[in-house]
Specification:
Length: 101
């Protein structure tokens, strides 16, 4: 079993959760890692929840800087896109692996 392939999803989830904006606002993050928020599915999930429950102009959404994209449907579209990209990447990676019995 390859070490990086097995642990890559766990590392991605941990980094993605930490950079989702739920623990610290984006302005408090170092500039070098701030761009990772755009590939974090946790960011879009938290943002869709905040916008859907509190509204786009709520103090909660403003405090966490969860305003881009600003609607539940656009956040859902980004989540579907991320899911599709990961699905295609999984198929490509698994086709390259040989079966071990």
């Amino acid at each position: 079993m390859d070490f990086p392939l097995v642990h890559a999803p766990n590392c991605y989830q941990t980094i993605s959760m930490g950079l989702s904006g739920g623990f610290a606002p984006f302005s408090a993050m170092p500039q070098a890692v701030r761009w990772l928020q755009w590939i974090s599915p946790f960011k879009y999930s938290l943002q869709a929840l905040a916008v859907g429950h509190f509204g786009k102009d709520s103090p909660f959404a403003a405090a966490l800087e969860l305003d881009t994209p600003g609607s539940v449907s656009s956040n859902a579209a980004v989540l579907y896109l991320i899911f599709g990209l990961f699905s295609v990447a999984s198929v490509v990676i698994l086709k390259g692996k040989r079966e071990v019995r």
